[in-house]
Specification:
The protein is an alpha+beta fold and 246 residues long. The chain is 17% helix and 26% strand. Strands 1, 2, 5 and 8 form a four-stranded mixed β-sheet that branches. The protein is elongated, with a radius of gyration of 37 Å. It starts with 18 loop residues before the first helix and ends in a 16-residue tail after the last helix.
Length: 246
């Protein structure tokens, strides 16, 4: 209903209020009360779940069955309930329309109780996925992360290391197989895009061959070069250093 403002009489200081003026005040309060009743003061909670856990990326809109303006829910706050809160509902029949990226939309009817009625349990709405969820691959080795994405029905669309080198997820170089995933997009539990996931890896660590240095003390330069040559080492310039005392 529309809120019509009635004509209200004003009184000067010391002037008595007439019955007509008083009744105008009563009528105004009565209409304001009726208008507030149509807006509603009921708070109703909706919990949206999918894949066995809460979905915090949904949009929940309630539409009254009797007609009227829809009411958008406040998304979950940082708490353990993960509830979408519909405020200002009037008692009666409503329909909750729920959408979320990567999930099939649903419309579920519900009854909003009167504001003074006992508290009701939140309305639980379960959504089904249209695409797979991103696995948690943070800290995994590169080949393990690629396998986890493949098991989820996806792949690594963009694969780069911390230095900016672009890699191939389908043909990962051997020296990158054991590098570690430092970042992932999307985040774990979010819907995987059709193109795949993006991963950032640590830099490749190439193990250089090492040899144990032999004892060359007392050998001539040629003898030392011969010993080092047998180990695959190349001797550069040889300098003779003379030490002096004071």
């Amino acid at each position: 209903m529309a809120l019509d403002k009635p004509a209200l009489a004003r009184a000067n200081p010391g002037q008595p209020i007439t019955a007509q003026g008083w009744n105008g005040i009563i009528d105004a309060v009565d209409r304001l009360y009726d208008f507030a009743q149509t807006i509603g003061s009921t708070v109703f909670e909706v919990r949206v779940v999918g894949d066995g856990g809460p979905i915090a990326t949904a949009t929940v809109v309630a539409v009254p069955a009797s007609g009227g303006a829809p009411v958008a829910a406040i998304p979950p706050q940082i708490d353990r309930t993960q509830s979408y809160v519909l405020g200002g509902l009037s008692a009666g029949e409503w329909t909750a329309h729920v959408t979320a990226p990567g999930f099939v939309a649903r419309s579920v009817p519900f009854t909003a109780p009167a504001a003074d009625a006992p508290a009701t349990e939140p309305l639980a709405i379960t959504l089904e996925r249209t695409r797979a969820a991103m696995p948690d691959v943070f800290g995994m080795r590169a080949f393990e992360a690629i396998a986890a994405l493949k098991e989820a029905g996806s792949r690594a669309d963009v694969l780069i290391d911390i230095t900016g080198r672009v890699l191939s997820g389908s043909n990962l170089p051997d020296d990158y197989r054991s590098t570690v995933v430092l970042a992932q997009q999307p985040r774990a539990g979010e819907t995987l895009p059709a193109t795949g996931a993006r991963l950032v890896l640590s830099a490749s660590l190439v193990e250089e061959p090492v040899v144990e240095m032999p004892n060359l003390v007392g050998l001539s330069p040629n003898e030392a070069k011969e010993v080092l040559g047998r180990l695959g080492l190349v001797v550069g310039e040889i300098k003779t250093v003379f030490g002096g005392g004071s």
